[in-house]
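Supplementary Methods S3. Complex input for the 2-hydroxyethylsulfonic acid-bound model.
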Amino acid sequence: MKTAFVTGASSGIGCATAVALARAGFQLVVAGRRRERLDELAAELAPTPVHILTFDVRDRDATTAAVIGLPLEFAAIDVLVNNAGGAHGLNPIQEGDPHDWDVMLDANVRGLLNVTHAVLPGLTARKTGFIVNITSIAGREAYANGNVYCASKAAASMLTKTMRLDLLPFGIRVAEVAPGAVETEFSEVRFKGDTERAAKVYDGFEPLRAEDVADVVAFMVTRPAHVNVADVLLLPAAQGAAATIFRQP
Ligand code: 8X3
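Predicted complex, serialized as structure tokens:
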């Protein structure tokens, strides 16, 4: 049985991806910060074998220790989905909170690197593997007030492209899915628990669901070994660009 490792698996795209990959026949390492959510997910995935890791991707030592400590039956990772991360705040740069900036850069960029760094020794030694980074349309297009979030996703996107080059000799495929508007806890986190403001983001059109993104990830990682669906921009039908969404009046 192949093993998939999904970060940020306690909710949203990560959680749905774990479900989709279990359906596709993978056993799972699910990583996140919220143990209870991961316990629930593991129960939902039964009888698929699941190993739960609770750590914060921003903490390099904890990330390394978690990966090194994987039990033997989960240690040979075939697929890594770097999904952990998010947006904090949506303000013009002059009104931004540097703490929010740190959190985004630490999770969306350094976190991705921390997990990748911890997992790569196994992948390069076995000369196989597939890394999917969940980026964002925000990494391709600037939108007002997106500043540091857009920058963090642009960095994740460029890391995807450069990692792909570096890992070619090892037969490791690296790809990204860049979603547009997906209704998850994303906006609630961005707006610091303001559920009304978060709900407005998805008013008047049908956003993507986490499962829509998960389906695409599952498709990508189940292609034959000679195929890499390297770069997917995934939008709801009503979205044409980062800040252009057709909303029903
Ligand atoms: C989430 C999509 O458009 O809010 O990454 O940046 S967006």
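The pocket of 2-hydroxyethylsulfonic acid is lined by residues 136-138, 180-181, 186, 242 (CB under 6 Å). The domain at 3-245 is CATH 3.40.50.720 (Rossmann fold).
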